[in-house]
Amino acid sequence: MALLKSEKPAPPRHIAIIMDGNGRWAKKRGLPRTAGHAAGAESFRKIANYCRSLGVEYLTVYAFSTENWKRSAEEISGIMRLLRRYLEEALADMEKNRVRFKFFGDLSKLSPELQAMCRNAESRSAEYDVQVNFCLNYGGRDEIVHAVKGFMADVAAGKREAGELSEQVLSGYLYSAGVPDPELIIRPSGEQRISNFLLWQSAYSEFVFMDVLWPDFTPEDLDKAIEEYHRRNRRFGGA
């Protein structure tokens, strides 16, 4: 049945977003980069709630990459403060919103306090349905190496045979184990590259690049990205 003009197309089951452009947003306004990250955090909150209202089952966001440690200590500290504040607020609202939290990445470089908050959020929300995945101290190449090391450790421990290795088996060692691959990956800010994001999982994702900085990203922009996704012909290698 064709959609009426007033109806929105159903969203993909899993949407991933590279939240890019916070620093440039702040620079354009003569503000410190930390102000851009604060504005970006509000955009994330707004878009996450909108995704939930649309029926998106999984939302994955690039919050902090393995390469972001190269930034100034002041900027990194500001990002971590924002993350701590968000988690404090999210934990208070978790039962009401019924959103499951997962963290993809090596959390060992975070402060013990933040690590505990992340694990607490995961455990307290484990039974909820809608899932938000935060890629935190995350890199796509690092994730694949981490998965290979996990498999090799199991082989050494006698839990696996080397000949068992397959795409499906290795997927089970990724941070995203059990999560379907994203159908749609959105990158705002005008940049057109992957930036080490979900390299394994994005093999057949549709990419939509948008010329809007992340703090200015609106639900209407998400609607446009979903509309573009529905215009694509997804053949998965077929004719």
Topology at a glance:
Blueprint: E1 14-18, H1 22-28, H2 33-54, E2 58-65, H3 73-97, E3 99-104, H4 112-124, E4 130-138, H5 140-156, H6 167-171, E5 184-187, E6 206-209, H7 219-231
Parallel strand pairs: 1-2, 1-5, 2-4, 3-4, 5-6
Helix pairs in contact: 1-2, 2-3, 3-4
Describe the structure.
With 239 residues, the chain is of the alpha/beta class. It has a single domain (14-139, 181-231), classed as Undecaprenyl pyrophosphate synthetase (3-Layer(aba) Sandwich). 43% of the residues lie in helices and 15% in strands. The protein has seven helices and six strands. A six-stranded parallel β-sheet has the order 3-4-2-1-5-6, with helices on both faces. Strand 3, helix 4 and strand 4 (130-138) form a beta-alpha-beta unit. Helix 1 packs across helix 2. The longest helix has 25 residues, at 73-97. Residues 1-6 have low confidence and may be disordered.
